[in-house]
Write a structure and sequence with these properties.
The longest helix is centred in the N-terminal third of the chain and has 15 residues, at 2-16. By secondary structure, this protein is mainly α. The relative contact order is 0.06. The protein is built from 14 helices and no strands.
C-alpha cells in the first residue's frame, strides 16, 4: 500500500543519514542496512555514496544495495536504466559496470561492449568479466565477436566463457549445437576443440554425430579421445 511504501521510505531516509556518521561502526551498520531498505528510486543516492568511497568493504556493500534496488523494478528491461544514467555522469564507472551483468538488458549490453572496445586495459578487464557473467545468453554474441577478432588476450578466455554459457543456457539441444557450430572455425587450440566436441556430445541428439565425425581424424590425440 502507499502508506507502507512511505513508511519504508522514511526508514531508508533515517538510516541513510547515518551513512555520513564519523563513527565507523555506525556508518558500516547503516551501509549494510541499505540493501534491505532501498527501493528502485533510491539508487542515485546510494551511487553517490559508492563514488565517494574507496573502502573495499563499503564498495561491496553499496554495490549490493544498488543491485537490490535495481532488481526491485518489475520490468527487467528497466533495471539498468538508473545505473546507465549514473555512468554518463560518473568519473568512476568501474564500480558500476559489474552491476550491469546482473541487471542486464539490451542497452546495458551495448554500453559494456562499447566500454570494452574503447576502454583502457583495466576497463577492458572489468567489462570482459561482466560479459562472461551476464544474466542471460545475450552476451554470447559479443563474446563471439571478441573471438572472431583474433584478440590474443581475450580470445581464448572468451571461447571458454562462450562454451560455459552455452552449456548452462536453458535452450533446446538443437539450438545449442548451432551455437557450438558457430565457434568451430575459431577452435584452433586442441583443448578448445576437445571441450567443444565433449559439449556437443553431451547434447545427445542425432545431429551431433555429423558434427563430431570429422574430429575423429583430428591431428590432436586429445581431440580424438574426446
Amino acid at each position: 500500500s502507499p502508506k507502507f511504501f512511505q513508511f519504508l521510505l522514511f526508514i531508508f531516509r533515517d538510516v541513510f543519514s547515518f551513512t555520513s556518521s564519523p563513527d565507523y561502526g555506525i556508518r558500516a551498520a547503516a551501509i549494510t542496512s541499505l540493501t534491505a531498505l532501498a527501493s528502485y528510486n533510491d539508487q542515485p543516492e546510494i551511487i553517490g555514496l559508492l563514488e565517494a568511497t574507496g573502502d573495499k568493504a563499503e564498495v561491496a556493500e553499496l554495490q549490493r544495495a544498488i543491485l537490490a534496488a535495481a532488481m526491485d523494478h518489475k520490468d527487467p528491461s528497466a533495471r539498468s536504466a538508473l545505473i546507465l544514467e549514473a555512468m554518463d555522469r560518473s568519473r568512476d564507472r568501474l564500480k558500476l559496470i559489474p552491476l550491469l551483468s546482473a541487471t542486464g538488458g539490451g542497452e546495458a549490453l551495448k554500453r559494456v561492449a562499447a566500454e570494452f572496445e574503447n576502454g583502457d586495459a583495466i576497463t577492458r578487464d572489468v567489462c570482459f568479466d561482466a560479459l562472461t557473467h551476464w544474466n542471460d545468453i545475450s552476451s554470447a554474441k559479443i563474446l563471439r565477436e571478441i573471438i572472431a577478432s583474433g584478440n590474443k588476450t581475450f580470445g581464448m578466455p572468451a571461447f571458454d566463457a562462450y562454451m560455459r554459457m552455452v552449456s548452462a543456457a536453458r535452450l533446446k539441444p538443437e539450438r545449442k549445437l548451432l551455437m557450438i557450430k558457430d565457434m568451430a572455425p575459431y577452435a584452433a587450440d586442441p583443448g578448445a576443440r576437445a571441450g567443444m566436441v565433449a559439449l556437443a556430445g553431451s547434447l545427445e541428439i542425432r545431429q551431433t554425430e555429423f558434427f563430431i565425425t570429422p574430429y575423429l581424424s583430428d591431428p590432436s590425440e586429445e581431440v580424438r579421445s574426446a
